[in-house]
Amino acid sequence: MAVIGELIKKAIEFTGLIKGDPDPVEAQKKVLQNLLQTARLTAFGKKYQFTETLESEDIIASFQSIVPVHDYDKMNADWWHYLLEGHQNVTWPGGQQYFALSSGTTSNSKHIPVTDDMLNAIRKAGISEITNINAFDLPGEFFTKQILMLGSSTNLIDKDDHKEGEISGISAANLPAWFGGFYKPGQEIAGMSDWDEKVKKIAEQAANWDIGCISGIPSWVELMLKEIINYHKIDNIHQIWPNLMVYTTGGVAFEPYKKSLEKLFARPLIYIDTYLASEGFIAIQKRPDTSSMALFPDNGIFYEFVPFNGDSVDEDGVVKPGAKVYSLADAEQNVEYVLLISTVSGAWRYMIGDTVTITDKIKAEIKITGRTKHFLNVVGSQLSVNQMNDGLRVIESEYDVVIKEFIVAAVHRNEEYIHKWFLSCDKFPDKIKVAESLDKTLKENNKNYNVARGRALKGVEVELIPEELFYKWSEETKKLGGQVKIPRVMKEPEFLEFAAFVEKNL
User: Fold this and answer.
1) CA dist 331 to 25, 31, 240, 306, 340, Å?
2) Which partner for 344 in 117, 218, 293, 434 could form a disulfide, CB atoms 3.0-4.6 Å apart?
3) 273 and 138, same structural domain?
4) 354 lies in which domain range?
5) What is the pTM of this model?
C-alpha cells in the first residue's frame, strides 16, 4: 500500500506542476465575465443590464455601478423567495434542486440556493485541496488512508421540487463515486439526523477504519473524539487511528480549540484551515508556512471587499449605500474588509457575513478576522472577534485555563452600558480578577475600546460556566452538531435569554 501511496503522491505532485496557479487579478476578470454572460438572460441579469455591462470597457466598474450590494434578507426578499416558490431563471439559469439551510448567525432560517454549477465548483475546490495537500510534505502512505468528514446529515429534506439541508450534507451527498472508498463515516451513518446517535455509531465503527485525515468544525470534532476514546476505553485517538496525520478545520477560529484537542492526540497533527460556507467554497490554506488561506480566483466566485469601518458599514454590520467597494485588483493588504461574493449559485454582490484581511495579494491569500454581526460596537468599543479571541488567549495563559466558547453583549446596568461575558472554562478562577485582566488586555490592544471604557462603557463582568452549557443551549434552541456555530456577540434581548438559560441550568 505504501507503494500505491507514493504513486498517488507523485501523481498529485505532477498534476499541481502542470496546473499551477492562475494570475488572481486576470482570473477574477474572466470569472466575472463568465458569470455575467451565463446569467444575462435571467430576471436578475435583465434588470441589471448584464448584456450592456459585458459590452462596457471596464466590466468590473460597470457591474459595481449598476448592481447593488445585497445581504441575505435583501437577496431573499427581492429574488430568492421566487426560487422557493418554484420559479426558474431568477438569478441563475434553470430551476433549483438544492437549498442550503444555514446554521449561521447573520440571519435565521436562511435558504441559500446551491446550483449544479456551485456543486461542480465545490468539487473542483475539493480536488484542489487534495492536490495542494502535497505541499505539507506528507508520507506516501497517507494517500491510501481514509478521510472522516464530520458534517451535517446527508439525508436531505425532500420538498415538492427541491431538497434542503446544510451545505456539508449536500456536498457529502454529491461526492464523486471514486471517493467512496476513502470517505467515512459512509453514507448510512452520514445520513443520520440525530447527532448523538450519529456519534455513537461512529464510535462503534471507529476501530474498523484507518483514518488519516479528519475534517469538521472543531467543537463537534472534539466531542466526537471524546466519545470514541470513552467508548473504546483508550487514552488518545492515535491508539485506534495510528495513521491520523491531518485535521482540516473550518467554520470557526481553530486556535481556541487547539489546546484541548491536542490532549486527545498522542502527537500534534498537521492543521489545514478551510473556508467552506453555505454560499460556496471560498478559500483554503495551501502551504504550511502560513495560516492564511488562498482564494479560488478562477472557480465560479467573484470577490469584492468593503472597508470595515463606520463610513462603509452601519452598526448592524450592513454595508451602507454608496460605500466604496474594491475588487481584488484594487484592495490593499492588511486592511479589514467585509467580504462580498458573486457566484454560480446566483448570489450577486452578496455579504457573506465575514470580515477578512488580505495578507498576500500576489497569492490571493486572506485571513478571516470575524463576523460583521459579531462586531461589538454598541458604545464605540469596536471589538472584532479576532481581538476578543486574542484577549482570551492571554487569559488562558495567565490563569492556566482553557476557554473555547464565549458569548458577549453590551447590556444595561443602572441605565449605563457594561460588557457582559460568558466564558466556557475548565477551571474556575476568581471571575472578578478574570474580568479585570480581560479588560486590561483589551484596553492595551484596542485604542477604541480604551476610549470607550473612559466614557460610555462603564464596566466589564465575566461569568465562568461549563462548556457543556453552550452545547446544551445550542441543542435546545437550534440543533446539535454539523455546521452549527455558537454566536460570539449577541444583542441585549437575546443575550438576556441566554443568561436566563444559564441560570436555570447551572
Assistant:
1) 11, 17, 47, 9, 12
2) 117
3) yes
4) 22-93+300-373
5) 0.80
